[in-house]
Amino acid sequence: VDHMASLVSSLLILARIDESRHPLHVEPYDSTALLHDVARHWRIEAQRAKLGFEMGIPADLPDIPVAANDLRMVLDNLLSNAIKYTPEGKVTFTARHSGDQVVLQVTDTGRGYSPDEGQQIFTRFFRAADVRADEISGTGLGLAIVQSIVALYDGHVQARSAGIGQGSQFIVTLPLKRLTNSAG
User: Fold this and answer.
1) Lateral strand order in the sheet of 52-56
2) What is the 3 state secondary structure string of 16-64?
3) How far are the Cα atoms of 66, 110, 149 from residue 181, in angstroms, in the given order?
4) How far apart are CA 160 and CA 169, in angstroms?
5) ∠ at Cα 26 (22, 29), nearest 5°?
6) Contact (CB, 8 A) for 138 and 131
7) What are the boundaries of each domain within the chain?
8) How confident is the model at residue 184, as a pLDDT?
9) What is the pLDDT of residue 116?
10) Dihedral angle at the C-alpha atoms of 1, 149, 171, 136, nearest 10 degrees?
């Protein structure tokens, strides 16, 4: 039942994004406080999973022009995956200001992925064969949602891994000024 509810919820999110029924105006909020709130939640989850959790969020990080719910969804998907696919080791979450962008990075010491999987990692419903065989729960939609949300805000997401067993790194780059969708 939980898996089905998660699948339906993810599909509805993707449908909303696909139809671009998305707020063009972002209400102001303290995005640094949101990053800390998200990190605190996932630190607890990492501790439950017996993993280390490190974070680096500078106090002077500029506000990120992404709706709070969308930013939370991006980070929740990335941090949830990092914890889920890291049987031992640690997860690191950092944020930094780089020129006219904010860079959010989630790195783990988990299972990583092969170059072939890397070509498909953002494809809807894609799940690695060994993950399916190990019966790790998931819908295969989380990273597709991340990529779709980030694209709505003219950002980019990259995934890196040196291979199976070598961990993963996800880097989200978001412009501080929206390039499109800024006119109402």
Assistant:
1) 52-56, 90-98, 101-108, 168-175, 156-160
2) HHHCCCCCCCCCCCCHHHHHHHHHHHHHHHHHHCCCEEEEECCCCCCCC
3) 12, 36, 13
4) 5
5) 135
6) yes
7) 2-175
8) 40
9) 86
10) 10
Q: What is the pLDDT of residue 135?
A: 58
Tokens 């800390």 -> residue: 36
Q: What digits encode the pLDDT tens for the residues 116-150?
A: 888 889 988 777 665 544 555 666 788 999 999 99
CA–CA distance, 86 with 50 (Å, rounded to integer):
10
C-alpha atoms less than 13 angstroms from C-alpha of 9 in its C-beta half-sphere: 10
Contacts of 6 (CB under 8 A, 6+ apart): 139
Cα angle vertex 144, ends 146, 85, to 5°?
A: 80
- CATH 3.40.1390.10 is right for the domain spanning 2-175: no
In residues, how long is the chain? 184
For the whole model, what pTM was predicted?
0.84
